[in-house]
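Hi everyone,

Forwarding the result from last night's run.
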Amino acid sequence: MPNAPRTIGLGLVLGLLAGALLIGQAIRAPCVSGLWDDGRQYTRLCYSDIVHQLGTEQLVGGRLPYLDACDAQAPGECDEYPLLTMYAMRLSAWVSGPSISGFFYAGATMMWLAAAGVAVCLYLMAGARALYFAAAPTLAIYATMNWDLLAVAFATAATLMYLRRRDVWSGVLLGLGAAAKIYPALLIVAFVAGRFRGREPDRGIHLAWAAAGTWIAVNLPFAVAGPAGWWEFFRFNAARVVDWDSIWFIGCERATGAACSNTGLVNVASAALFVIWAGAIWVVKQRRDPGFARWTLGFPILVVFLLTNKVYSPQFSLWLLPWFALALPNLRLFIAFEAADVAVFVTRFSYFGTLTGLDDGLAGIPLGAFEIAVLARAVVLVICVVAWVRRRDPAPDAIARPLREPVSAGAIA
């Protein structure tokens, strides 16, 4: 029956997710061995941070992150990630031993499980719109580039708990997410604002305290037992120079021919711009649509953070994928974002190959092409925020969708 309505169930969502992750693994496979002397991480676009972290994070053997000091003479940064991410690496290293490929696959398994968790949570909240995450090309590209899917899983589960009015659990999950990657802490603002808008300030306060208490409970023992190691994440990120993928880098490079030199000034300016622009968007949206669901502020808050921050690492785009399903299910804008983000990935690592003197494979793209791709992505994200401000369609709210309930394929758009 060609005119029969099509349905999308959770099994199909997970099947497409598995397909995306398999494609991603096929892309990553040439780099898993860690034998990068031929520059394959750039010429074959298979780079992954996870591959080299067994060595750079000094996890061969029994060193405990934060608690045992790093060897200052060893190359690379050490203990540069938040606590739960560092201990996910530590667990992977315990499983793998000294094997680089074993370490990668142990970490990749965690990321694949996290991705499945995100897909299930999104399906429960938005049905077929979970495909904005599960079938995203950038999920295939970035799923095992770093450890961000851990935080994405916590943040998405926290959103589900919020919509089901389990505010303390939502706060706990946001606190755990912030202990893996700082960005889930930004969502506390949106979720608390939603409860205050609904004249339920106690719920919002409980959520905020649960998030803060969870983060403190997880971090405090390490901050007390190994303060220097625990503080390294904050020190490193405060001193970190402007990253290649940021608007700051393009502005400084085009103005001076070099990267931004005053990191302290960039830190202050990026924080100020983030607060100003996030606040301005909130005000404009409220004036246009006074009754909008405040929790959906999570989407523009994350976009503004990424565009004003001095670092936009490639895998940070994973943070946004669930929000296309939840707050801006616009297929055309999603495709535009995916196309721009894939262009950033290809031009970034191809240019790095050029920078290191490689001239084979996919290396050879100049810096200007990479910068154009970054600017194109920024423009698309700005348009997405404008579309969110103009959007009046109801967002998912307090949904409790059964796992076996069929969902119309038309819900994707």
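DSSP finds 18 helices and two strands in the chain.

Cheers,
N.
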